[in-house]
Amino acid sequence: MSDAIKMKEAHFPGRAPIDAYGNGGFRFADMSHRGSIVCVPSGIYGIEMKAPVPEMADMQHILDEADKIEVLLVGTGENLLRLPQNLRTLLHNKHISADTMSTGAAVRTFNVLLAEDRAVAAIFYAVE
């Protein structure tokens, strides 16, 4: 038996509204997570985003569940930033409407769409 500690990917299995954001993380479902997150139909996952705009590697959970997603909200930190053309094209080809906005606005919009039981997903860049 190995003495090595195995780290599991941070994951909440299910859909939940975001209760709070800031201080470098998020609160949801009576839990907290430090860092950025992606919310898809199968759950909420912690991700290591290098910058406020997602890269292709940050999109894996979205692509894995693309057939269950109609709207993708992208919270780009404190400022509104645009998705790169390659990601906009990829999402368009998957029939996913992508909207970028500040993380705060994206969290609020996500919670409304989730309450309406819409096919929504989100990537939120953590803000201090």
UniProtKB/TrEMBL annotation:
Entry-linked Pfam families: DUF498
Gene3D superfamilies the record matches: MTH938-like (3.40.1230.10)
Record's protein name: Uncharacterized protein
